[in-house]
Design goal:
Elements: E1 2-3, H1 4-11, E2 20-21, E3 25-39, E4 42-47, E5 50-54, E6 59-61, E7 68-75, H2 82-88, E8 98-100, H3 103-121, H4 127-147, H5 154-157, H6 160-172, H7 179-186, H8 190-201, H9 205-223, H10 228-234, H11 240-251, H12 255-265
Antiparallel strand pairs: 1-7, 2-6, 3-4, 3-5, 3-6, 3-7, 5-8
Helix pairs in contact: 3-4, 6-7, 6-8, 10-11
């Protein structure tokens, strides 16, 4: 766990340029200043009282690190037991990721974050005991973040049927592209999935599937060196032309132009 200013001084600004894709969790607690941070192509405003949670597999891009400060905490996936994972939606890829707290809530949260920082840095406590206490303190912070999530967040407002569908899409989007396939897999009618999707996120189930494929396509175009043809193949498209037409129709730009624009802006 480090301060943003410490990270910048230690690693240098060049380490934070461009789009990154993590294989671990990253929590950012902003204590002063203001900036912007892009997570999966959505711009989030940062100011005192902001918490940002970037989960494994997400892409992100730092803004001006010299414009703000705060705590940065990284931890591996699978660190907690099943009960905490479920309650905190820790590994949930569509779980809440952005909070901006009012003064009273931020005072409470920032106090716990400072304690967590002190525990991580403690050099006196026995290592095994320190790891156990630190994990418990982090559990407390993560569970509180879950309890304080906006009730309008999709994961909070979704029906059980839709969450089951959403989990299936997350697991199979690269090979299953039709609503009928998911209906058969889950044992629901396509009408049931349509109703659950409309009630939960105001979209059709086909839109939900396409949105997930499009997100992964953007992630791979932004972060990987895979050719456009190989990205299309990885996402279940028969050929590059088919993938290119599909992407352009939904993103409003050709895959090559999307990649070029991101790299020019980095």
């Amino acid at each position: 766990m480090s301060r943003v200013a410490e990270l910048l001084e230690r690693a240098g600004a060049r380490e934070f340029v461009g789009t990154q894709r993590l294989d671990f969790h990253l929590l950012l607690f902003v204590t002063e200043g203001s900036a912007e941070h892009v997570v999966d192509f959505t711009v989030h405003s940062l100011r005192e009282g902001t918490v940002l949670w970037i989960r494994p597999g997400m892409t992100h891009a730092w803004g001006d690190l010299s414009a703000f400060d705060g705590y940065v905490l990284a931890f591996p996936d699978g660190m907690f037991d099943a009960r905490v994972e479920t309650l905190g939606q820790i590994s949930c890829p569509y779980g809440p990721r952005h909070w901006t707290f009012d003064t009273a809530l931020w005072e409470r949260m920032s106090g716990q974050v400072r304690v967590l920082s002190e525990l991580v840095a403690d050099s006196v406590m026995d290592d095994e005991l320190r790891r156990s206490v630190t994990r418990s303190a982090l559990e407390s912070v993560l569970l509180q973040l879950r309890s304080l999530a906006d009730p309008a967040e999709p994961v909070a407002a979704s029906t059980p049927v839709f969450l089951e569908f959403w989990d299936a899409v997350e697991a199979h989007f690269a090979r299953r592209h039709s609503v009928a396939e998911y209906a058969k897999l889950l044992g629901y009618s396509t009408r049931t999935l349509a109703r659950a999707s409309a009630e939960s996120v105001g979209k059709s189930p086909k839109q939900v599937i396409d949105d997930r494929i499009l997100l992964e396509a953007r992630r791979l175009l932004a972060h990987s060196e895979l050719s456009i043809g190989r990205i299309g193949a990885a996402l279940g498209f028969a050929d590059q032309s088919n993938f290119g037409s599909w992407f352009t129709a939904r993103a409003g730009v050709r895959p090559a132009d999307f990649r070029r624009a991101l790299r020019a802006a980095a």
